[in-house]
């Protein structure tokens, strides 16, 4: 670590995790930095994804160590708690050795206790690093359009205000929880995602009933657009009717990530003594899809579990039959 540089006033931004979300978020932030003749430094476990960002002008870190040495603000967007734990174990070790304080902005959906633990460990470093938990709402195309809903927690008002300069380059609105308690943002995110998965469960059940009762699904879509004109209702009902639910999760949210989130919701409900039966239903339906080896599919493919229980062919089979007829 003797090559670590002492950072002065200029912000040097590092980004770790360039998956479906991280790639678009980092691209939008980099676009803003480039307008100021600045460049961020990025690291991804699979280096091919970092290379894809090279044309945006980013520097590619040789290692996490390299990135920490050159950054005083580090964003992370990682798949799950295990990935966050693994990356932050390294980050905390390195953060203990640098001269400069670092602001960490963790944007993944993780269990609240993990966020609290990371905040505690980073605050205990002599440099008194700051840890913000800032989960985001919106799927990858929304991230690409810089229209995410951003949630803030941790730090103080001054830090959050300063960081909003960067958050706004990736989002259409920011919800400030006005709390240093980073667990609250994780709880918030899990509750928000509960509304999404609950909507999907309802749509999957209703659309399955429509098919069994021989009600034209296209007319159901028209009804949803007129009566429930909310993006999640419209988007997920279309996916389920078109069969695009069964496509690979690219530009979507995978069954496996969904299982992680719904698992966290159920755990939170257990810990707090809340009753959350819809999460149990959705979990079982997602798990059935996962158990068929389809954990990479978009999570709206949970409809297949209901179709199977209703003795209907899977969406894949329906799409194949449609294709053969055309
Ligand atoms: N997709 C959505 O619609 C959505 C919306 C809001 C929030 N989120 C949340 O945002 C986070 C990222 O989601 P995503 O859809 O971008 O997931 P993703 O496409 O699966 O990307 C996951 C990222 O985590 C990295 N990663 C996984 N395990 C790792 C490890 N052990 N060490 C280092 N890096 C590791 C991956 O690196 P590799 O490239 O090397 O695999 C990749 O960069 C998740 O917490 C998710 O719940 C997702």
From TrEMBL:
GO terms of molecular function: NAD binding; NADP binding; oxidoreductase activity
6-phosphogluconate dehydrogenase NADP-binding domain span: 12-176
Active site, per annotation: 189
Keywords of this entry: NAD, Oxidoreductase
Residue span, 3-hydroxyisobutyrate dehydrogenase-like NAD-binding domain: 187-304
Entry-linked SUPFAM superfamilies: 6-phosphogluconate dehydrogenase C-terminal domain-like, NAD(P)-binding Rossmann-fold domains
Key word NAD present: yes
Signal peptide coordinates: none
Stored InterPro entries: 6-PGluconate_DH-like_C_sf (IPR008927), 6PGD_dom2 (IPR013328), 6PGDH_NADP-bd (IPR006115), HIBADH-like_NADP-bd (IPR029154), HIBADH-related (IPR015815), HIBADH-related_NP60_sf (IPR051265), NAD(P)-bd_dom_sf (IPR036291)
Superkingdom in the source lineage: Eukaryota
Database matches in Pfam families: NAD_binding_11, NAD_binding_2
UniProt record similarity statement: Belongs to the HIBADH-related family. NP60 subfamily.
Protein name stated in the entry: NAD binding domain of 6-phosphogluconate dehydrogenase-domain-containing protein
């Amino acid at each position: 670590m003797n090559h670590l540089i002492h950072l002065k006033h200029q912000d040097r931004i590092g980004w770790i995790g360039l998956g479906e979300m991280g790639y678009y978020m980092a691209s939008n932030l980099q676009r803003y930095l480039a307008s100021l003749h600045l460049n961020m430094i990025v690291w991804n476990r699979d280096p091919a994804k970092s290379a894809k960002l090279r044309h945006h002008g980013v520097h590619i870190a040789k290692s996490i160590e390299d990135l920490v040495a050159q950054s005083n603000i580090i964003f992370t967007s990682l798949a799950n708690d295990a990935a966050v734990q693994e990356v932050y174990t390294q980050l905390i070790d390195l953060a203990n050795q640098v001269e400069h304080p670092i602001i960490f902005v963790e944007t993944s959906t993780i269990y609240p206790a993990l966020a609290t633990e990371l905040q505690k460990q980073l605050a205990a470093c002599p440099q008194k690093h700051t840890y913000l938990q800032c989960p985001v709402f919106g799927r990858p195309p929304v991230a690409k359009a810089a229209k995410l809903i951003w949630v803030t927690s941790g730090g103080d008002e001054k830090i959050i205000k300063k960081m909003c300069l960067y958050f706004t380059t990736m989002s259409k609105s920011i919800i400030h929880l006005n709390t240093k308690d980073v667990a609250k943002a994780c709880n918030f995110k899990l509750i928000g995602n509960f509304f999404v998965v609950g909507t999907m469960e309802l749509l999957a059940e209703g659309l399955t009933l429509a098919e069994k009762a021989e009600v034209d699904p296209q007319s159901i879509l028209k009804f949803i657009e007129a009566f429930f004109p909310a993006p999640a209702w419209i988007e997920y009902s279309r996916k389920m009717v078109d069969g695009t639910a069964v496509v690979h999760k690219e530009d979507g949210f995978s069954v496996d990530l969904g299982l992680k989130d719904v698992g966290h919701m159920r755990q939170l409900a257990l810990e707090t003594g809340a009753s959350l039966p819809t999460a149990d239903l959705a979990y079982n339906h997602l798990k059935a899809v996962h158990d068929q080896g389809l954990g990479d599919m978009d999570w709206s493919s949970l409809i297949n579990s209901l179709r199977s229980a209703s003795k209907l062919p899977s969406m894949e089979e329906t799409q194949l039959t449609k294709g053969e007829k055309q």
